[in-house]
Amino acid sequence: MSSFYHAIHFRCTAIAVLAFIFLSAMKVWAQNDVTFPLVIDSVKSNPIPNGYHYEMWKQPAGTVKMTVYNQDATFDVEWSNIQNFVARVGLKYDETKTHKEIGVFTAEVEFQKGQIRNGLAYFGIYGWTVEPLVEYYVMEDWQDWRPRAGDGMHTLVGTINVDGSDYEVITRQMKQQPSVKGTQDFPQVFSIRKNTRASGTISISNHFNKWEDMGIDLGKLYEVKIKVESYSGNNNGSGSCKVTKGKILVDGIPTSIQPICDDFSAKRQNFTGLNSTNGTYTLISLSGQKISSIASDLSQPPVFSKNNVSPGIYLLQSKLNGVTLQTRQWVVK
């Protein structure tokens, strides 16, 4: 039996297991002389040790300074004399699964805008899909200008209601423009909130699902990120924004890795008064993808098939009668 199964153990001490993982990650970053806060002032795309991913794209004109903190998906950005930039932090995917195959996406955000001059700015959720190539926006707030039907080849598809507000759904076909796959033709799709806000919970998957109900095809996910963007037609836009709260959750599970000390035996749930402790354990990757789920006695450690689970660090979710009891980090040896 032992040859077919991994015994999955969670080690209590951060020194023994999680410290090893974090020190290994630190070694990788140290090779490139990377420390946090990390300042990015050119086009770059890299993972962050806490499980998120940052990307900054800009056109040549002007300067942009993006500061990434390795604390959830928070970041700051300042810009001057720019034409166009997009700064974002969130989840990066391998382009093999659709949003429905990964799970239900939500985000918790707070944007603190500084003074913005001589240009438009967008604040919200942003990303791309491939096969087909689609650039998408969930705009929670905007400044100076936003896409409108009939303006610049934008088309109103309809109106949806998400998170207590109406959003206009607008599309635009781009011709030979920059993308995550080089210069290509592709559609843009926007959900633009009528009652703009600077903070709150964003039900991202509700937008995805409602777009698809409207006939908008989304492909396999390249990314789901929190975004700040600005554009100035005369290359003199300036401004700043702090993303002081930034989390993206998949099926209610946050992504960010936090060093914790935990012991299975010491932190079992209190099952007093229950007729049964039989429930389910679900192993979830740090990017929010479900890896494996088993029925089990929740008073005992889980055992997953080695055919389904590779060694690494995961999130372990326990459920009883459909209710999530606990989510913790879990190491597969």
What brief labels describe this structure?
2 domains, Jelly Rolls, disordered N terminus, Immunoglobulin-like, 23 strands, ten-stranded mixed β-sheet
Note the run of SSEs as H and E: EHEEEEEEHEEEEEEEHEEEEEEEEE
The appropriate CATH architecture of the largest domain is Sandwich
Query: End-to-end distance, in Å?
Result: 17 Å
| Outline type | globular
What can you tell me about this protein's structure?
- The chain has three helices and 23 strands.
- With 333 residues, the protein is mainly beta.
- 35% of the residues are buried.
- The protein has helices spanning 14-31, 99-102, 204-213, and strands at 5-7, 38-40, 44-47, 53-58, 63-68, 75-82, 84-92, 105-113, 120-130, 134-143, 155-162, 165-177, 184-193, 199-202, 220-221, 223-231, 237-250, 253-254, 278-284, 290-297, 303-305, 312-320, 323-332.
- The strands form four sheets. Strands 3, 4, 7, 9, 10, 11, 12, 13, 15 and 16 form a ten-stranded mixed β-sheet that branches.
- A hairpin with a 2-residue loop joins strand 11 (155-162) and strand 12.
- The protein folds into two domains: 5-13 and 258-332, Immunoglobulin-like; 50-254, Jelly Rolls.
- The longest helix is centred in the N-terminal third of the chain and has 18 residues, at 14-31.
